[in-house]
Structure formats: C-alpha cells, structure tokens
Prior knowledge:
With about 325 residues, chain A is of the alpha+beta class. Chain A folds into three domains: about 25-135, Immunoglobulins (Immunoglobulin-like, Sandwich); about 150-205; about 215-320, Glutaredoxin (3-Layer(aba) Sandwich), CATH 3.40.30. Chain A is about 35% helix and about 30% strand. In chain A, the strands form three sheets. In chain A, strands 2, 4, 6, 8, 9, 12 and 13 form a seven-stranded mixed beta sheet that branches. Chain A is flat and about 80 Å long. Chain A starts with a helix and ends in a 5-residue tail after the last helix. In chain A, about 30% of the residues are buried. Mean pLDDT of chain A is about 80; it is low at about 15-20 and about 140-145. The model of chain B is unreliable at about 255-275 (pLDDT under 50). Chain B is globular and about 60 Å long. Helices cover about 55% and strands about 5% of the residues of chain B. Chain B has two domains: about 5-190, no CATH class; about 200-275, Alpha-Beta Plaits, CATH 3.30.70. Chain B starts with a helix and ends with a helix. Chain B contains 15 helices and two strands. In chain B, helix 2 (about 50-60) runs parallel beside helix 6 (about 110-125), helix 6 packs across helix 11 (about 185-190) and helix 8 (about 135-145) packs across helix 9 (about 155-175). The chains are: A alpha+beta (about 325), B mainly alpha (about 280). At the A-B interface, helix 1, helix 2, helix 3, helix 4 and helix 5 of A face helix 2, helix 3, helix 8 and helix 9 of B.
Amino acid sequence: MAKLTLAILIIxxxxxxxxxxxxxxxxxxxxxxxxxAPGRAAQFQVIATSGAAYTxxxxxxxxxxPPGLSVTPQTGTIAKIAPFTKGKLAFSxxxxxxxPPGKYTITAAVLYTYCTATNCFQLEDSLTIPVRVTAELTxxxxxxxxxxxxxxxxxxxxxxxxxxxxxxxxRGIKAPIYFVLLLFVIGGFVYGIxxxxxxxxxxxASVLCTSCVGIEAVQHAPxxxxxxxxxxxxxxxxxxxxxxxxxPWCHTCPYAEAxxxxxxxxxxxxxxxxxxxxxxxARAAQAGVIRNNRTIVPAIMRADTGAVIxxxxxxxxxxLQLLGVGK
Amino acid sequence: xxxxxxxxxxxxxxxGLLLGLFGFTGIGMxxxxxxxxxxxxxxxxxxxxxxxxxxxxxxxxTVPYFWVATIVAYGILAxxxxxxxxxxxxxxxxxxxxxxxxxNGIASYSKYAVLIGTxxxxxxxADTMFCKVCxxxxxxxxxxxxxxxxxxxxxxxxxxxxxxxxxxxGMVIIxxxxxxxxCPMGAILSLFNRxxxxxxxxxxxxxxxxxxxxxxxxxxxxxQEEYDSHNCTKCGECTTVCTMDAIQLTFSPQVxxxxxxxxxxxxxxxxxxxx
Lengths: 327, 275
C-alpha cells in the first residue's frame, strides 16, 4: 500500500503544473515572416487561439501599414471563437514595384470581447507581422512553414500500438501492454503539457456550469430589491448621480441597468445616466472602466465621488454601499 | 480477519474525501484530474471531474492527451481500486451497502452504455448533458449552492435531486448500485482491472469454496471465480473474511498468465465432489 500511496503522490505532483494564467485569446501570424518581392503579393493568416472556457465575440483585426505596402482586406472580423478553438483570418500583403528591399513591420491591432457569468470585458491586443521585401523573389511566396504532424497522426499511432498490446495480451503475453500504456502516460503528459492542456482542463473546471446546478435562472432573472434595501434607499435625502457604463455586446449589463432603474424609481434623489462605452470611450477611460486596453462592464460610478463598482455579483449590497446606505 | 486492511481503506477513503473538499484551505482549482467521480462545481472542489472534463473535450474537439495520460496512469495503478479506496461517491455507496445482493450479469454492462451515451450526448448537443443528471453534481454542487443561497429550487435543481434520490434508493436496495450499473468513471477504470497493479490474487490450493467471500462482496461478485472481474473494486472485503487466506490483495504487475481457468476447473471438481 505504501507503493500505491507513493505512486498516487507522484501522479499528483506531475499533474499539478502551476503555470501562469493565459489570456482568453492569443494571437499569432502564419508565416512568422512574410517574404515578397517588389510588385508582388503574399498571403498571411492571423490566427486567434482561445485558451479559456469563454466564448470570444466580435474579434476585429485592423492594420497599421508602412508606406509601400498594402493589406487586403484592410480589416477582418470573426464573429465568435468558441472556447479552446481557433479562428483564422486570411490577408494578402502587396508591395509596390518601387519599394526598396528591406525589413518592414505591419502592426495588427486586435479588439475582442468576452463575458463571464457576471462581467463582460473588451480587450485590445496587438501583434507585429515582419515583412521581408527582397528583389530575389520572382513570385508570391507563402512562407516558411514549419513541419507539424497532422492532428490524427499521434492518436492513430496510439490506437495501433494499443491494438498490438491488446492483441498480445489476449494471447497471454501481458508485458507489452504495460509498455504501450506507459508510452501513453509519458507521451500524453509531455505532449498534453506542451499543448497547455492542463491549463485547458483547469479553465474548464474553473467555470461553474450554472445551468447544471440551478443557478442560471437566478442570475438572469430581473433584479428584485429586497425590502430591507428598499427601506434603506428611502433614507437618501440628497441628490446622487449614478453613471452606468454598458456596451451592446455585454450580456450582463441589462441586469445592472434594471437594478439602477429600480433604485431610481424608489428614491427620486437618485438619478442615472447610461453611457455606451463603445461610443464614449473617453468618459469610460476617465472613470477607469477602460484601462490597460481592457474594458470591463457593467460598471456603475457614483458621479460625485468617482467610486465605481463592476459586475453584477452581489450587486444589491454593493450598490447600497456605493450610495452610502449599505452596511 | 484482516482488520488492518479495512482500516487502511477507511483512511484512504478519508484522503479521497479530503482531496475532494480541499477547497476549504482556500486554494483554487488545480490541474489535477480526480481519480473518481467528483463534481468540479462543488464549492470546495480543487480537482477536475474526469467525466465532466471528457465531455468538454468532446465538445471542444480536443485530442485529450493530458486526460488519457492521467486516466491510463490511474488505470495502471489501481483500475477500479479507486472506486473502492478513494472515490467519495464510492464511499457513500459503501456506507449504504446494506444488502449485498448478487444481481450482475448483463446488467453490470449498463455502465458502459452510460459512458458511451455521455460521450455521444456531449457531441450531439454540444453540452455537458450527463452533468445535468449526475447525482454526484446534485449532492456536491446543487444542494450546497442551494444552502449558500446561490441556487434556487428550479427545474435543473429538481432534476438533480430526483436522480440523486433514485440513486440513493438504489444503493440502499442493492449495495454499490451506482458503482455496479451506472458509473461512467467506473466503466473507464474497469477496462484496466485485469492489468492494474492493485489486484486480487487467488490461491486455488487454499480455497475451500466456502462462499464467505461472495457473501462479503459489495459488488455482488463471487471472488473465488471472478477475482479479476471488471466489476471488482478491489475493496478487499473478500480478503478480510477469508479464513484460509486464499484471496489476497496485492500490488504488482499482472504479467503472469491468467489462472482464471484453474478455479473454474477446481470449482467443477468441487461441485462434483460435493454431489
């Protein structure tokens, strides 16, 4: 039994790979360097890879292009990238005939949104696309593509090995099956960790399946202020202005908007303004709703103090606190 | 009576429960896949449910290298031994094992149907359909969230609760009802039972065919004949009641040729001798 305990501990240690949290989307360019000759065109792809259990929406890619180069189309959009999947956008870059050979850099700006159960985010990212213009090339060159195994290769190899192992095992030769399964364990851990699958698993498990446990209906129901909250709100005697920052892509904003409307209906001293962050970005940035290229909504700001609360989790007590009547 | 083995199993089951509820320490979700059925939606969970994860991987179309490596490692180590020694829901099955009846046969293969159905449903509906009816999720997530004031008594909750009550009733009527017939994780681990390091060995020369082990087996097996059954959870109850020490729980590779034929032959001779 000591051996068993030791073995379990070893597996646990291997499984726990404490790595940093990945962003929702990571971006890459294929090929990593685009080669083309003056007057010619070359293709490249912007690849967005989801590393989280959230769906990314409205992924927009636009470019800052040095003189002498042009990119078509000028922008690209992916409506939705499901969790742990990839989205690809194909572009073509063209050099003018008189562009001198050399190294150029195209900068791609990326904007996308995603929502958790209580908050919605808009993130900005960027990536650079190195372009090498060389007179030696006579036509469009796609690239330096690194050799990779097709996705079915390793599973097929694994199944073949497993088949051989099981075949021998049924004939009473049991030792090879252990060798095959050991390959599965070592290979699976090494390749899985390389593909960041432990983080994928952690990401999946970190997101509560709300509909599974009966939470979703509560969170998406219209807000209902408690009697205690209503009584507390009536104590407000001076005017308070609230600014509610929202966005059209935000799934949880209507909940916050409805609660603020309810509060204002209970006590007319509370007034509110709705600000669409996609329209008035300056005001949102000033309030801290947009910072470090990240937009977080819904956000409710008390205008006189500048205090802001985000999201809809436990919104009632936090809103009361913002209004100065909470516990 | 091997009291020491029983005590060790209870301690091991305690460790299983401790790992399942390790979130009380405040640490968040880790990368560990739990070697049993344990809902990751549990407020105190720090490990990943293998079945919940498998469904998600099917939905996302991920080739599950990490998942396979972990499950195979667990399988080689103990096979269904994790059901008998570690899984918290297995422990609950154990605690409610009042009637050790022998109803196996083809019915015990229904857990494979549950496993296949779980995977197909995840693929067809792009959703974790099994999780919506999983009694473990009902016990470890829905009910705690109700008491935490987060969930409410709505259709998903009632569905979970209904399945949980039915399964609990099944456990009371038939020992280890869930493990025998329905557990998809048990179905996966059972595939490794005949090669797992933790396994039962039978010394046919010492067996008196008294049948005490069959009476003790919570999975309704006849260990003297089915000591390498896919249903065996390696709980060792049979070894604790065997006065002849004919059945033993050991931890080593099962590289020798199967001796299954020997007890079957001996059994026949025994039957003939007894007539």
